[in-house]
Write a structure and sequence with these properties.
Elements lengths: L2 H15 L10 H9 L2 E5 L7 E6 L4 E7 L4 H16 L16 H14 L2 H8 L7 H11 L3 H10 L5 H7 L4 H7 L3 H11 L6 H12 L5 H8 L3 H10 L25 H8 L17
Parallel strand pairs: 1-3
Antiparallel strand pairs: 2-3
Length: 289
């Protein structure tokens, strides 16, 4: 089976196992975290770094990290791509991301991401018997499935809606250009704002908030985890009704205290001994004289 076929089969299987149907996917971070239990973080990173997958063999834990970016469609495809590596249990080395030679694992992860984000059957349900297509229909597909024009063009070609020449032409278009041309630039800017924001793993953040509510974790720790100020974190938590629990100190009643067994013999002996610091001339003696 080719890398393309493997990726498509895995993408369709994931949708089926998670009861996602063939409709567009919403919040991909939440879907991955809820479906797989994988911790996903959106982090500030260099502009050339898009995403990574890390595996901890000792704890059998997997983490996915993607970069904050003003390119929301690319962030979604990166998330899906890294999920593909996780599901295929790929072990990536330092050369895995070399664009001069795409490995079979990278091609397979690309195919998985494409078929997960824009399944062929979902595309056919959306477009029906429309044709020939124009850039207006391409814009609708990009807007509906939240994928790049490049990924949309490949899917449209595979579904038989456009030929290879049109696919090559449309691959060069950008989502901002289509959004501006066809009137959904406000939506695209909202997507940009969301993809450019840091995001902590939900399970980790939930545990931290529980610890804060129990009074064992500071609000600063939550602020640092979320990448916001201490005041912002405290305000959000307070408005949500999350405040540190007070643990009053339980003082015992005197009557409840146990009887003290103190041996005062040594103290009595010490008090009865002569005071060696006393000047003999100060000591008065009894009797005549």
């Amino acid at each position: 089976m080719s890398a393309e076929a493997e990726g498509r089969a895995a993408g369709e299987r994931f949708r089926q196992e998670q009861s996602l149907g063939v409709q567009p996917l919403g919040d991909l971070v939440a879907i991955i975290e809820q479906a797989t239990g994988i911790d996903v973080a959106v982090l500030e990173a260099d502009q050339d770094q898009h995403g990574m997958m890390m595996r901890d063999p000792q704890r059998d834990a997997v983490f996915i990290g993607v970069a904050c970016t003003r390119h929301p469609m690319r962030q979604r495809s990166t998330l899906a791509h890294e999920l593909g590596h996780v599901l295929f249990a790929d072990v990536k080395d330092g050369s895995a991301g070399a664009w001069s030679h795409r490995s079979a694992e990278e091609i397979r992860a690309d195919a998985f991401a494409r078929h997960l984000l824009i399944p062929i059957e979902g595309l056919r349900e959306f477009l029906g018997e429309r044709g020939p297509l124009t850039q207006a229909e391409l814009s609708e597909v990009v807007q509906r499935f939240l994928v790049s024009p490049k990924i949309a063009a490949i899917a449209l070609c595979q579904a038989g809606y456009i030929d290879d020449a049109t696919k090559q032409e449309w691959r060069t278009l950008t989502a901002p250009r289509l959004a501006t041309r066809f009137g959904w630039s406000d939506q695209y800017r909202a997507l940009q704002d969301d993809s450019a924001r840091r995001r902590a793993p939900q399970r980790l953040l939930a545990r931290a908030i529980s610890a804060y509510a129990e009074g064992v974790l500071s609000v600063q720790a939550i602020a640092t985890l979320r990448g916001i100020t201490r005041q912002e974190a405290e305000t959000e938590l307070r408005e949500a009704g999350v405040v540190p629990a007070e643990h009053p100190v339980a003082w015992a009643e005197p009557a409840d205290l146990p009887d003290a067994d103190v041996d005062l013999a040594a103290l009595d002996e010490a008090l009865g001994a002569p005071d060696h610091d006393t000047d003999p001339s100060d000591v008065k003696t009894s009797g005549n004289g």
